[in-house]
Design a protein that fits this description.
The N and C termini lie far apart (about 40 Å). With about 210 residues, the protein is mainly alpha-helical. It has helices spanning about 10-30, 40-55, 70-85, 85-110, 115-125, 130-135, 145-160, 180-195, 200-205. The protein has one domain (about 15-205).
Length: about 210
């Protein structure tokens, strides 16, 4: 049993990570529409913009709310098209970006350090006040760390000369290996997408 729970073992790592992610989901979805109570004016602006997108708007920069980047609004509109124009869908979009951030950051820390540090990172992001409360509000800011974490992960993979994984084409040929630049391209793609998320992205790219 001790080996089964050992974080340095593959099975133990994934078991603990699953428990952490389940905790993150509960902390983010429990009473999502009532805590915090009501929608802020910024959340309402995102909802209005998402509905406008569903009705045909295709801007790359929206002027409502003194102007803002569009990626979060398009993501919200996509979920609203599937699940309906409801407040929980708006906030649920932020939750999904938050969970993506936890997964991507955990993956990077595991590559850069070790399983134990990765799990501590995941736990901090799962239960910390800032990531929880940011995820529970339908605001675009959460999309920035999510996409930046993905960019960092793929960039680090190529630096470490690791393969991208087991994703394969239909013909069974590996999509890429460490000799090809696809990981760098993916890093660039996600880094570029951050410019459509939130204002600090205009300077955050300098970290690369």
């Amino acid at each position: 049993m001790r080996n089964f729970l050992d974080v340095e073992k593959r099975t133990g790592f994934w078991l603990w990570l699953l428990l952490i992610l389940l905790t993150a989901v509960v902390l983010r979805y429990y009473h999502l529409t009532t805590v915090p109570p009501g929608l802020t004016h910024d959340e309402a602006d995102h909802g209005i913009t998402a509905v406008a997108i569903l009705n045909g708007a295709r801007d790359i920069y929206f002027t409502i709310g003194h102007g803002r980047e569009p990626l979060f609004d398009y993501a919200t509109a996509g979920l609203m098209a599937l699940l309906g124009q409801k407040a929980w869908v708006l906030r649920g979009t932020a939750v999904l970006f938050s969970l993506l951030m936890i997964g991507a950051m955990t993956a990077w820390v595991r590559l850069a350090f070790n399983n134990r540090v990765a799990l501590l990172t995941a736990a901090g992001l799962a239960a910390g006040f800032w990531p929880v409360m940011t995820a529970r509000q339908g605001l675009r800011s959460i999309a920035l760390p999510a996409l930046f974490s993905l960019a960092l992960y793929f960039f680090w993979r190529d630096l470490r000369k690791l393969e991208i994984g087991d994703w394969r084409l239909a013909i069974g040929k590996p999509l890429t290996d460490h000799r090809l630049p696809l990981t760098f391209l993916l890093a660039g793609l996600f880094l570029g997408l951050t410019f459509y998320t939130y204002i600090p992205a205009r300077g955050l790219w300098l970290l690369f």
